[in-house]
Amino acid sequence: MPNDTLAKHLFHWENQTLEWAMRLRVALFIAEALDYCSTQGRPLYHDLNAYRVLFDESGDPRLSCFGLMKNSQDGKSYSTNLAYTPPEYLRNGRVTPESVIFSFGTVLLDLLSGKHIPPSHALDMIRGKNILLLMDSHLEGNFSTEEATVVFGLASQCLQYEPRERPNTKDLVATLSPLQNKSDVPSYVMLGIPKLEEAPPTPQHPLSPMGDACSRMDLTAIHQILVTTHYKDDEGTNELSFQEWTQQMRDMLEARKRGDMAFRDKDFKTAIDCYSQFIDVGTMVSPTVYARRSLCHLLCDQPDAALRDAMQAQCVYPDWSTAFYMQAVALAKLDMHKDAADMLNEAAALEEKRQRGGRSSV
């Protein structure tokens, strides 16, 4: 079974019903992912639904990156079936952190029932105490009624019409954590799949020095390449007027300069701090700064943060192979080796395309 199997197989895994304990694990892992996003200042995970759940090589459920990729600070981006859309979005066209909680409630319903049930219909059934009627019949009663009641109660809270009446992400984790009764059983065992220890596939495109370093996860070589390349790939990503050349701008560039010196000297924690000062001002965007901070996070054993920065570099410069290469390394560090190999191939293809067009790339 490939590691990127979508959640359309979530409930009946290769014609086998996903057991109750695994459904509880999926719910908790999604809640933990949302809580992590929230604590990292990314609470607006757009269009959360069961199809956002992916599985890694160990069978562990993960929340995919697509929602974060489309994340907008103003909350105006949303795309889903209107029957499952948070009511406040229908009123004002905006997504809030509470809207994400509503969407999480619809995912809980999917996990419990094994099918899509419009929230309004589900709430009527919950209020009517018809919880057992909502449960997936394929479970054949192999679940705890007490645990199911807790999860239904949490779903009901998440689906409240008024956003302020919904729980927050920490409440989700606190409610779901005590229900995990097979924590010592690996996910791949519960899914009935072998844990494959496969080497990453051979890249389909010839690799540049950057690609080769990333395929070998040679962080020292990547560091040397980024130092040598400097900021040549940032050309055209910023257009600044004379009026914008303020003291704040000079301070921001000074922070970047300090970050560059720390990066060159391999003081990666200081580099993270300085680059963060540059990024937080927000006047300029630099894919190179994101790529450099991504490598710093990798060297500080922070692959999740590294992946986010590499994704941000891609948002700034969508066709930049370095952004894809850095994502490949971060994904490999997260043991998502097939995804890493796919990203590596995509980066190599972008390099090849740019070279055919006569533009050099790292």
UniProtKB/TrEMBL annotation:
Biological process terms in GO annotation: brassinosteroid mediated signaling pathway
Signal peptide region: none
Where does the UniProt annotation locate this protein?
Cell membrane
Q: Which GO terms describe its molecular function?
A: ATP binding; protein serine/threonine kinase activity
Q: Has UniProt tagged this entry with the keyword Transcription regulation?
A: no
| Main location group | membrane
In terms of PANTHER family, this protein maps to: SERINE/THREONINE-PROTEIN KINASE BSK5 (PTHR45863), SERINE_THREONINE-PROTEIN KINASE BSK11 (PTHR45863:SF14)
Q: How does it sit in the membrane?
A: Lipid-anchor
**Matching InterPro entries:** BSK (IPR045845), Kinase-like_dom_sf (IPR011009), Prot_kinase_dom (IPR000719), TPR-like_helical_dom_sf (IPR011990), TPR_BSK1_C (IPR058209)
Lipoprotein in keyword set: yes
Record's family?
Answer: Belongs to the protein kinase superfamily. Ser/Thr protein kinase family.
Q: Which UniProt keywords apply?
A: ATP-binding, Cell membrane, Kinase, Lipoprotein, Membrane, Myristate, Nucleotide-binding, Serine/threonine-protein kinase, Transferase
Which GO CC annotations does the UniProt entry carry?
plasma membrane
Domain (Protein kinase) ranges: 1-180
Task: Report the protein name in the record.
Answer: Kinase family protein
Which species? Answer: Quillaja saponaria (Soap bark tree)
